[in-house]
Design a protein that fits this description.
Layout: E1 19-24, H1 26-34, E2 49-51, H2 58-70, E3 74-80, H3 81-86, H4 88-93, E4 100-104, H5 117-125
Parallel strand pairs: 1-2, 1-3, 3-4
């Protein structure tokens, strides 16, 4: 109960709080960590982020992304778009609402909306007639 007797509004997460996860280059991930999103899973002690560099294998990115999809504490996965391109099949294969997957730009790689599979899917849901 909140003060004044009002009941809290329902959430899409069924009343459970969720965290964000991030996959990106060092600058991108560091920025989000400085913003306070860094967490360790309560049971596995695995972090909710992956720093990708030139030595990171696509299979490691894919495995981490899949592990984030399966974690019950993650509600949003932020992934640098150029990294999402490395595992495009896995990203496009995710068709659930939660966790939401958002492709973001990085310092060295600008955002290209034509490559964003989630945005393409969202555009297909509406027609121009829906907004008249």
């Amino acid at each position: 109960m909140t003060s004044g007797g009002a009941t809290p509004a329902p959430t899409i997460f069924g009343g459970k709080s969720k965290i964000m996860a991030v996959i990106g280059d060092e600058d991108t991930v560091t920025g989000f960590l400085l913003g306070g999103i860094g967490e360790l899973h309560a049971k596995t002690r695995k972090p909710n982020f992956l720093i990708v560099d030139k030595n990171t294998k696509a299979s490691d990115i894919d495995d981490t992304f899949k592990s984030f999809l399966n974690r019950d504490d993650i509600g949003i996965i932020l992934i640098s778009q150029y990294i999402a391109e490395m595992i495009r099949g896995t990203v496009e294969g995710h068709d659930k609402n939660v966790p939401a997957v958002l492709e973001i730009p990085s310092k060295e790689h600008p955002y290209d909306p034509s490559k964003d599979s989630i945005l393409r899917r969202a555009r297909g849901m509406f027609s121009i007639e829906d907004f008249k």
